[in-house]
Amino acid sequence: MFPVDVTISSGEMDVLECLSSDRGAMNRAAGVKDRRVGAGSSAYYDLDGVIGERAVAKVLGVPMDLTTHLRSHGVDMVSRSGVTVDVKTSRRPDARLISPVGKVIEADVLVLAIIRGEWERSMMVTLAGWARSDDLTSERRRVDPGGRINVRCPTYVLERSDLLTSSYPFGPIA
């Protein structure tokens, strides 16, 4: 099943740009602390995040959450089989699935979405694979600053080669 390539159309991009802008403004107005590991701007990451969410929703055949209210949970969607999903998105071709130590992961599984190319009216996203949240947050995945991987804070790191590729927890895939 994974990896799988997904095209995000120009019409979808229009909606996603508005959604990410509204979500970002809501978060910043509420003083939500940005815990992202990367060094880019929040607006950049907000848009990338919703692009990744849209790609996963298309593949799973479930609706994407289009709300802009504050979300206190880390669940982006629920699969048709009831599995909760958190999408992690990157533009790095060598991206790994990462999460800061101490961040509560409420989803059952995480999916790694990689956006290919630069800003365009339509985008290509590769869904590289997925992992159970308890596998990502295993102490054997912990990397501290100054360790084998350059991180700014203690971070759980799951290599691409360790991602799962079956459609197993998601049930029927669209």
Keywords, please?
alpha+beta; 3 helices; 174 residues; globular; 5-stranded mixed β-sheet; 25% helix; 3-stranded antiparallel β-sheet
Walk me through the structure:
With 174 residues, this protein is an alpha+beta fold. The chain has one domain (4-167). The protein has helices spanning 10-29, 42-60, 133-136; strands at residues 4-8, 77-78, 84-90, 97-100, 109-116, 123-132, 142-143, 155-158. The strands form 2 sheets. A 5-stranded mixed sheet has the order 1-6-5-3-2. A 3-stranded antiparallel sheet has the order 4-8-7, with no helix packed on it. The longest helix has 20 residues, at 10-29. The chain is globular and about 40 Å long.
TL;DR of this structure?
This protein is α+β, with helices and mostly antiparallel strands and 174 residues long.
